[in-house]
Amino acid sequence: MPVILNGNDFQKKKYLGRMIEEPLLCAYCVTEPGAGSDVASIKTKAVKKGDKYILNGQKMWITNGGVANWYFVLARTDPDPKCSPGKAFSGFIVERDSPGVTPGRKEINMGQRASDTRGITFEDVEVPAENLMAVEGAGFKIAMGAFDRTRPPVAAGAVGLAQRALDEATKYSMERKTMGQEICKHQAVAFMLADMCIGVETARLAVLKSAWEIDQGRRNTYYASIAKCLAGDVANMCATNAVQIFGGNGYNTEYPVEKLMRDAKIYQIYEGTAQIQRMIISREWLTQAKNKH
After folding, report:
1. Burial of 236 (0-12, 13-18, 19+ CB in 10 A)
2. Which of 182, 201, 271, 284 is catalytic?
3. Which of 167, 263, 287, 292 lies in disulfide reach of 111, CB 3.0 to 4.6 Å?
């Protein structure tokens, strides 16, 4: 996404072109062992030497880390610790097969285990100056701008999980009987299904709204964060309710909903935590309010 939005013609042709010629993947390297939501704490650095940059640092929790053909890497280019994040970081395109690039082991996570998630170490990696995105100091803006485009599809995935949880819980509740009737006829269960319906439909609309704003050519930061935050919370609520409706069976790996519960949690963490989304939403809302007065 950073290359689509901010790459020059040369970078787009070289790195996006190959991805439609072959089934290749790329990865977004921003998070570090000590810097997730706090992007300003990133330690990976890039020092310019002649017509190249020397990249050193470590990234963590990188999706597609072990299978990517190339990486977008956010690194500090201004060594001054007092320099603002908006000017201190730069974005680079780094080839996977560059000497000094070392992916770590595939992490075994709580859920979404089909995702190839790893740490990546960069040790004296030489990056051609032509692989600098935009200009030095534009990295933070590039990285944050990409989130406006990537949060809606991540939220869409959360809605899909929530819908699956609702479908599974509904089917089970119409088959399982207690006290002489299907459990969906008990108000306690029916109301849980109703809450899931409310969540799924409203989250889906939020996703559509956030994507529609992009189609209108407008900055969608506010709506992207609302969609991501709501859909992540709804996915977790629906997965938890599904496990509850399945009862003891829901806690067992022979049934599908325990996996949904494990898979759901990450939607409140990656692509910006639920707490970060609320910070963005409140900031954007108050900015709008001030501009009206």
Report:
1. buried
2. 271
3. 263
